[in-house]
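quick one, two chains, predict together pls
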Amino acid sequence: MFFLHNLERRVTLHPSYFGRNMHDLVTTKLVKDVEGTCSGDYYIIAIMDTFDLSEGRILPGSGLAEFTVRYRAVVWRPFKGEVVDAIVYTVNSHGFFAQAGPLRLFVSSHLIPDEIKYDANATPPQFTNNADMVIEPGTHVRCRIIGLRTEVGEMWAIGSINGDFLGCLQA
Amino acid sequence: MSKTIRLGNRLRYPITIVKLLKRPGDVVKAQEPLMQYSFKWMKTVGDSVRGETWEEEQTSIVNWDSPSDGDLKEWLVREGQRIDKDAPCFVVKEACSHDIQFQGLCAICGKDMTEVNWAAEERDTARAPISMTHDLTNLTVSADQALRTESDLQRRLLQSRKLSLVVDLDQTIVHACIDPTVGEWQKDPTNPNYESVKNVKAFQLDDGPLGITRSCWYYIKMRPGLEGFLKRIAELYELHVYTMGTRAYAQSVARIVDPDQKLFGNRVISRDENGNMLAKSLQRLFPVSTNMVVIIDDRSDVWPRNRHNLIKVLPYDFFKGIGDINSSFLPKRKDILPGATAEPVVNGNGGSAKAKPAASEKALDELSEDTPVTQAQLEEQERTLEKQMKDRPLQLLQEQQDKEDEEAAERATLQSEDGDDTRSSSPPPQRHQVLRDDDTELAYLERHLTQLHKAYFAEYDRQQSHNGAATVDARAIPDIGPLLDTLKSKALRGLKVALTGIIPNEIPAERSEIGQQLISFGAIILNRVSPNVTHLVVNPQRLLTEKLKRALRIPSIKIVSPEWLAACFSQWAIVDETPYLVHVDVSNWPGRGAARDSDAEETDDTTKGKRRDKVLRLKPSLKLVSASGETQELDDDSDDEGDSDDQDDEEELALMPDDLEDGQMSPVDGLKTFNWGSADAELDEFLAGESDDDEEDEGETQDTDGVTDADEPTPSRKRKFEGEEGDTEGEGGTDSERGSQSESSAPRPRSGQAKKLRRTQSVRGTSSLRNQYVSDADGDGDGDSSLPTPQVTGDEEDVKQDVDLKDFDEAELEAELEAELMAEFEAAPDAVEVGGEREQEKG
C-alpha cells in the first residue's frame, strides 16, 4: 500500500557547496540519497517536497555542514494479503520469480492453480494451462502477497496466484 | 503430512512422563506445553563457606513444549513411562512442511523461517537445505521436494528419450580470450590470421573486476562444428551449461552459442551460483540421482565426485598460449600432455602461467573458508587478465612466427632441414598464421555421445521389458556411469602402455591424470619396459630416459609421442601410430654411448632441432668457463647452477626430471635469461685466437664423432674414451704446465681449460663411481669432491690465488670478530682504537 509519509533525515554538505543555493543542493542530495531505497519496512518511492530545512551546522573536525531535513515522501509498504501486479523474470520447476517494482516475489508451484503446469520443454520454460494462461519471463501477473521478510535495505515476498482474479494479466 | 517429533537430546535423561496435557486431535502450537515430565538430580546443600555441604536428590517437574505447529495425531509415550534416552514422542500433522524456501521464507505458507523457536532443536531453515536451481542460490528445497522434482525430470526425459548433458564452456566448446590483438586482426583482412579470427564473436562485460579489464572485450571462438554438434546433440540430450566463469560471462557466451535459447534455455549455472570455487558437482543440479547425466568437460579434476559421468574432451586451444581465462580459481591442471596440449611458453605469457599456480595453492590452503579465497582469487584473476591485456601474447606469438617465417625464407634457398618448424611444411610464400582452426574433437565427441545414448536406452528398454512395467520407476532407471565406463573400457583394450618423461616420478603412473584415463579406457599401464609393452609414450623433449633406451632394443614396442595418446583419448580407439611415431636417432644419442662429450654435443647443435633444449642445458658448463675471468660475481652464481644442471643430466638416465613445462622454476631458468649471444661472441674470440694445440683437440672430437656414427658405437667408443682418458691424463699435466708457463697470453689458459673440461666430461660419462675416483685421484689443488665441475679446475694458479685470497679474507674476518669481542670487554675508546687498527690493516 502507498502512503504519504513525513520523514526526517540529516543531510551533510561538503564545504565546497556552501553558497547561495545551498538549500537546493541539500534537497537534491536528499533526493539522490533517499529515493528508491528500502528502509526495512517500506520503500521510499518518491520525495514530494521538503517542508522544513534546518539551518546548517558545521560538524567539528570535518567541516561538513549538517542539515536536518523534514520531508514528505511517497512510500510503499507491502502487506501480507495485499494484491500486487508484477512482471515475471525467471521460471523454474519450483515456481517463478516476479518483480513488483522493487520487491521480489517468489510464487511456488504449490501456490499456482493445479491446472497450470510447468512445461520444461517449451522455450523458454513456462507455466501454462495449455490455454490462455502462459507464464514465462515478461508475463504480467497479479498475485497476492502471503509472506514477507525484511532485512536492512532489502525485502522478499512469497506470492500466490491461487485465487479469484489472480494470475496472468491480459495485456 | 505427518511428522514424528522426538523428545530431543537436551532433556536430563532418565525422565518420567508425568502428565500429557493434550489429546490426539488437538491443535498444537509451537512452544506450547504439551506434557509434563519429571527428572531426578542432585543438589548441593549446606554451608559452602564452612565446607559443610552434602548432596540431596531432588525431583523436578518440567513442562515439555512443542517444537512445531499442527494437529496432534498420536502420542508415542504414555503417562508414567520412564524414558532413558532420546525417543519418538508424538506424531503431528503439520500444516506446511516448508519444503521450498526462498530467502528465509517458506514458499508454500509464507512463514518466516528465520524466526527462532527455542523449543525446537533444529532451525526451520535447515528443513530445506538443498539448492538445485541453476540461476539462484536463495531458493532451497527439502530432500523430499528435490526427489519429487528430480523424478519428474527423469520421467519427462525418459518419455522424450533424452538424457541430461552438462556442458562446460571454456576450452570445451569455446575458447575465450581478452587479448585486444584479436579485435585488431579481425579488422585487418591482410592479416594472416584474418580467416581464423573472422568468426570470433565478441562481447563486453560491465560486471567484471574493476580496473583495466572492467569493460574489455571478450573474444569467443566457438569450436569448429559447434553449431551442428549442439543441434544434433540437443535431440538426444537436454543441455546444461556449467562454467566457472561469472554469471554474466556464462550468459553472454550462452547467447552467442545459442541465440534463440533453444538449446540451453535457462539451464545455465556459473561460479556465482556454484557455491564452490574449486570444484564442480553434479549434485548441485541433480541432488538425488545422477543416473541420467553425462558431463563433457576438458578437465576432470574439477569433478571429484562425478568422474563416472564425465567424458573428458581435449581442451580446445585456439588462442595459443592463453589457456582458460576463468581458471584462476581452479587448481592448476595436471593433466596436460607435454607436447600435445602444453601451452607454448611465450615470453609475454610467462607471468600468467606463473600466476596461476600461486592462486591455486592459496585456494587449496584455504579450501574451507570461502570468502578470503574469493577475494584473493578475484584479485589474482584480475591480475592475470590485466596481464593478458597488456602483454598481448597473441601478438607476440605472431611476431615470433613472422620472424621464423623470415628465417625460413632465407634458409629455404639453402635447403636446410631446419626450415620446417613443426608449423609449416611447404616453403613459406607469405606470413604464417598463429591461429589455426583445425580442431576435430567435436565430431568424435558427437559420435561418443550418440553411442552412449544408444547404449543407455538399449539398457533401459531391456530393463523395461524385463520388468514388464509400463510406468517409469525411479529405481528401474539404469545408471549411466557404469555404462559409460564399459563403453570406454573397450576403446583401448589390449594396449600395454609405458610412459616415460611424462609424469613426474614421485606420482605413481596409475594415479596420475593420464594414467587414470588410460585405465578407464581399458589400457594397462606398465611401469617397466618389457617385451609385453606395446607402446611407449615418450616426451619428445626428454628423450634421454632409461626406459626409452630399453624400449629401443625391443622392436615390437612402438615409440609414440603424447599426441598419439591424446588422439586415442579423443577418438576412443587405437589410432594408427604411424604419424605419431617418434623417431629416435640412436647415432646422435649421447646417453647410448655411456659417455657424453659436450664438444660433440655442441657440434650437433644445429642439426637436431628437438635436441636443442638438451644442448642448451649443457652449454652453460662450457660458456661459463670462458666468461669466468671477467664477470666473477655473476659467474659464481651461474657456476652453481651449471653444477646442479650437470648433476641433473647425470641423473636423468635413471630418474625422470620434474615437470618443468608447467611454468615451474627450473634450476636453469636463470641461465635462460643469460645473454648467450655475448658469451658466444666471447668464445668465438677465444677460439679464433687459439693455437694449433686446440686444433688438435678438434680433430680428436671429430674422430669421436666418426665413431659415434658407426653402427655399434658402444664398446669401441668406450674404449676410445678410456684411451683418450689415459691420453689426457698424460697430456693434461703437460697442458697445465704449458698453461702455467704462458700465463700472460689470453688464449693459453683457455686451451688448458678446454682440455681439462673434456677430460672431466668424458670421465664423468663412464660412471659416477669412477667419476668420484678420478676426481679424487686427479689430485689437483681442488680435488675436493664437492667441486667436481670442470670450470673450476680450469686455471689452477688463479683458483689457488682465489682460495688464498679467501683464506686471507677469512683470517681477517676472524681478526675482526676477535677485535669486536675485545671491544666488548674493554672500554669504549679502546674499541675505537682497535677498530682503527683494523681499518689500517685492511687498507
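The mean pLDDT of chain B is 69.
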